[in-house]
Specification:
The protein is built from three helices and 21 strands. By secondary structure, it is mostly beta strands. It has one domain.
């Protein structure tokens, strides 16, 4: 698994490829933000939901039946390939060359189209002999060129040049079979995102659905650090870990500051926690933890945590 890391100052395929098994190797990223020296309160918007709110404690035997979220919500289907996913931060990209990435089990090539002044995300496969386009180059006209036979593609994935084709022959480069699969892509919060479906009906998906917006990431009063890490485990393990506050006093002993427990059971200070879940459905959840502040999970891959331990300035951590 790959992760975008950020400890904290300024911030900053084919049309059937979406049927591949997801998460064979996941990509994750995160950004940490701190408020400046002057104290400032970070207010998180509370999202209402049809799902029933409930409060629980880890020391309780169980949550009562009326406190359970609606069964319909728990069984709501989540469309994994109808979501925006982060690919990599812009600060790690060189506009002069194409970049290979694997996200959602899909082999991608990310490249800068200077003709449209946009980052593009393509299937990392030339339609000619299946050579990886990420090993190609950006030609003098700003097109993505395959390094095997020199085929060139524009920002829409259309083939614009087949060097071996005679100029007075049929325009074979205009054939649909000569096109490379292009994924919808955009840049938000200084991160390149892509929509993992190349069906033409999703071409303008950005006009109907945008990547999740995190206000703090565009707030100039915050400072931001962004980074990237490889992690030797899968998406599910990482997300579960990020949303599990009970391990912090033990796995991160001495690194995480938390209020003292009323009853201290051991050196580390672990104990029961009050968790108040305000929203819970297939799109994620929002909860308040008595010791660690607010936590939000935005499906499929964003973990957001805000806390103000002791007199320390408020800090927001965001993991993709």
């Amino acid at each position: 698994m790959e992760a975008l890391f950020a400890p904290s100052v300024h911030i900053s395929a084919s049309s059937t490829s979406h049927n591949k098994t997801p998460f064979t190797k996941s990509r994750v990223s995160f950004s940490h933000l701190k408020l400046p020296v002057l104290p400032m309160l970070l207010t998180l918007g509370k999202t209402t939901s049809k799902s029933h709110s409930f409060t629980t404690k880890t020391s309780s035997a169980a949550v009562s039946a009326e406190e359970e979220p609606d069964t319909a919500k728990k069984e709501e289907k989540f469309e994994w390939y109808a979501q925006w996913y982060p690919v990599m931060p812009v600060c790690d990209l060189d506009k002069r060359v194409p970049h290979a990435k694997k996200v959602m089990g899909l082999d991608l090539v990310v490249w800068w189209d200077r003709n449209e002044s946009e980052w593009k995300v393509f299937d990392d496969t030339c339609p000619h002999r299946l050579a990886p386009l990420s090993e190609g180059r950006i030609d003098q006209w700003g097109r993505l060129q395959c390094s095997y036979h020199g085929w060139c593609f524009n920002g829409s994935g259309n083939c614009k040049l087949i060097p071996q084709a005679p100029p007075d022959g049929p325009p074979v480069h205009t054939s649909m079979k000569a096109c490379v699969a292009a994924y919808p892509s955009t840049v938000q919060h200084d991160i390149v995102w892509f929509w993992p479906n190349t069906d033409p009906k999703h071409k303008d998906i950005i006009t109907r659905k945008q990547p999740p917006f995190i206000p703090e990431l565009d707030d100039p009063s915050f400072t931001k650090y962004m980074g990237n890490r490889d992690l030797p485990y899968g998406y599910d393990v990482l997300i579960e870990n990020l949303l599990d506050p009970a391990h912090l006093p033990y796995a991160h002993y001495g690194l995480v500051t938390a209020p003292e427990q009323e009853v201290k059971s051991d050196r580390e200070g672990g104990g029961p926690m009050d968790l108040s879940v305000k929203k819970l459905d297939s799109q994620g959840f929002f909860e308040n933890q008595d010791l660690f502040g607010d936590t939000k999970f935005i499906a499929p891959c964003i973990s957001y945590a805000s806390s103000s331990p002791g007199d320390a300035p408020e800090k927001v951590s965001i993991y993709y």
